[in-house]
Input
Amino acid sequence: MPKIAPFRGIVYNAGRIKKLESVIAPPYDIISEKMQDELCRLSPYNIVRLELNKIEPSDDVNENRYTRAKKFFESWLEKGILVRDKKPTFYVYSQRYKDGAKHVDRIGFLALMEIDAKGSGKVLPHENTLLAPKIDRLNLIRQVRANLSPIFVLYDDSSHRVLSLLKKITAKKPFIDVMFEGVRNRAWRMDDERDIKKLERLMNGKRTFIADGHHRFEVSRMYSAESQDTGSKYVMAYFVEANERMLTVLPAHRLIVDVGGLKVEEILERLGKFFRVAKKPTLQAMIKDMERLKSHHAFGMYAPANGFYLLVLKDARAVDEVIKDKPRQWKRLDVSILHLFIFQHLLGIRDDDDNVEFVKSPKETVSLVDSGKFALAFFLNPTEVSQVKSIARLGEKMPRKATYFYPKPVSGIVINKH
Output
């Protein structure tokens, strides 16, 4: 378990910002250009201007999206739009949302997490990362010298003692209570010295896993190594108990730009050698059967002129013959089978970032294929939390976008300035 510490967070000034929902935003990696425009229109102080500033045609080395973010940040602090808390604090953060027919209240806390030396194993990642997003985030942190959104971290606690302490704090009135995209976000300050010490003691020795924010975590390490600022040795993190009842994991469905000239009939023929292939009348029917057969490695496929197909793996030993240098748990992940066995081995589809895109909504996935922007779509069942922990403990990493923990922590609740 890395060391954690309270911090003097920077928050929006309630006296200046009357509608907090106008200034908060999702994390940068799920903000589309359309959403970026919509967030900018909501308020001149929306955090998207810091987190994901627009690219302008005139941008150069001296004037660009990162230098503009720095100017906005400094200006908002100077004007009192953003204010820094006076006392070091842990921030209890709750997100209440609907998961099917049930309501979930996911309660965690925001804290500074010491950046461990690479390979020490104090906090375990589970996904591979890409260079371009890391360069982007590194350029931003060099300018703003702040964590604008938290890394999402899971911790093991079978006794639930940390959660009990957090629930005690949530009995008070929150200083933030805002609905955003159907999720109720609330935050409380834990600034009593006794509570702070108790939380530090309870978290000592806990095993931790990164749920979301792998790129930002690696960038924080890179920035810490090059910076002389002592504050850069810590990164802001949102800690949540690895409790299946409090966690919702959605799949990220795959959209393919270029299938290398393959016709749908050829794709189905190749897949048919190793998968039971069944045509389905609707998206809903395909998704329902995928869920029913998830223990058998079931996938969905959509081609605009051909419709929906259910794919169920016949024999997992065929995967073992192709993927030889990984543990059994890794080979049995649906995302591993999709990327290495289906994309690379069977279909020869280029598994590059510019050829494969990720969308969480099945309906939106179909719509994007129908628009002509993509040739094909593949659908997955969600990765289970137990699989995330198992792979992380093995020291392995899943293919990118193996998990989509929902909802993501909102940007703009608390900022950590180095």
Notes: The longest strand covers residues 102-114. The CA atoms of residues 289 and 310 lie 8 Å apart.
